[in-house]
Amino acid sequence: METILIRALQLIMSLSLLVIIHESGHFLFARLFKIRVEKFYLFFDPWFTLFKFKPKNSDTQYGIGWLPLGGYVKISGMIDESMDTEQMKQPAQPWEFRSKSTWQRLLVMIGGVLFNFILALFIYSMILYAWGDSYIPLQKAEMGMQFNETAKNIGFRDGDILLTADGKDLFRYDADMLRQIVDARIVTVLREDRQEQIYIPDNLMQSLITDSVRFASYRFPFVVDSVIPDSPAAIVGIQQGDTIKSLNGKPVAYYDFMNDMDALREQAVLSGENTVDLLRVEIVRSRTGGVIDTLILTTDSLFKIGVYNVADLTKLLPVVQVKYGFFKSFPAGMLLGVNTLKGYVGDMKHVFSKEGSFI
């Protein structure tokens, strides 16, 4: 219960910050153009307020309402949440919103959104300053990528290393990379030391929207994190830190191993047998220090060997770490924020497609 209350309080405080910043945008532009602001409220105040005060010689009343669904500023000469239409029946006064020029009224109206965007840029900058940035370079992931069925249907294969989209280099796996691929005509990959070209259909994004599995993910080695006591793996001596290199003579990454074991289980189900021969597998493992040996083990009835893998990719694949100083974090944060907004705006076209709509 205490955790729920703390999170509720955190949510209210976060929303309060957003509301104050948003309404401050309207307020400051209004005051800049000498427009009278009658009220500045955090939360709505139907019937009564929790707190209010009006500084001496000020036209503005500041307060806190009781309904935490937003906030508002009441600007003279503007129809707002209060729906005060009586004021509009009087002649326009110099301090009213309606007496100002078009560009001034526009800035007052978009001031809230503009300030929220500036806040987002500041937050992005502080995130980069505090934690920096890290990513796995696509070309450094030597095992390539694992693709979903939609990607395989247009020509991608597990193990492909993504190189370029319409001649532009692909650096990291993120939303921008996916947008590059979707908007491209040709994607170049490295496959078995040869460059191959894959032609991208116009409806790829629509197909991906309907998928329940992500377009691609990094392939990584099967490194043992822990071994269940008395399991098949423990019996043959598999230990923490071992890497499983192949299964029944076939080189495998982690996903390959899991898929092949699933295939063996399905074979047993279809055959109606669960014999020792079907349960027996040959594994080549690499031990810490580089020693490689071959093990024959018998899985359990569910075709499990009894190990957990290392799932943290930063321990398995090369990671680029980028640190930012205080002043350098601001241009980097602004660039990140602008690119994120551009991506969201570009994605809006898919919302109006059959696959992307919520209806």
Automatic annotation (TrEMBL):
<dbReference type="InterPro" id="IPR008915">
    <property type="entry name" value="Peptidase_M50"/>
</dbReference>
<keyword id="KW-0472">Membrane</keyword>
<feature type="transmembrane region" description="Helical">
    <location>
        <begin position="106"/>
        <end position="131"/>
    </location>
</feature>
<dbReference type="GO" id="GO:0004222">
    <property type="term" value="F:metalloendopeptidase activity"/>
</dbReference>
<dbReference type="Pfam" id="PF02163">
    <property type="entry name" value="Peptidase_M50"/>
</dbReference>
<keyword id="KW-0862">Zinc</keyword>
<dbReference type="GO" id="GO:0006508">
    <property type="term" value="P:proteolysis"/>
</dbReference>
<keyword id="KW-0482">Metalloprotease</keyword>
<keyword id="KW-1133">Transmembrane helix</keyword>
<keyword id="KW-0645">Protease</keyword>
<keyword id="KW-0378">Hydrolase</keyword>
<dbReference type="InterPro" id="IPR001478">
    <property type="entry name" value="PDZ"/>
</dbReference>
<feature type="transmembrane region" description="Helical">
    <location>
        <begin position="12"/>
        <end position="33"/>
    </location>
</feature>
<keyword id="KW-0812">Transmembrane</keyword>
<dbReference type="InterPro" id="IPR036034">
    <property type="entry name" value="PDZ_sf"/>
</dbReference>
<feature type="domain" description="PDZ">
    <location>
        <begin position="223"/>
        <end position="287"/>
    </location>
</feature>
<dbReference type="InterPro" id="IPR004387">
    <property type="entry name" value="Pept_M50_Zn"/>
</dbReference>
<dbReference type="GO" id="GO:0016020">
    <property type="term" value="C:membrane"/>
</dbReference>
<protein>
    <submittedName>
        <fullName>Putative zinc metalloprotease</fullName>
        <ecNumber>3.4.24.-</ecNumber>
    </submittedName>
</protein>
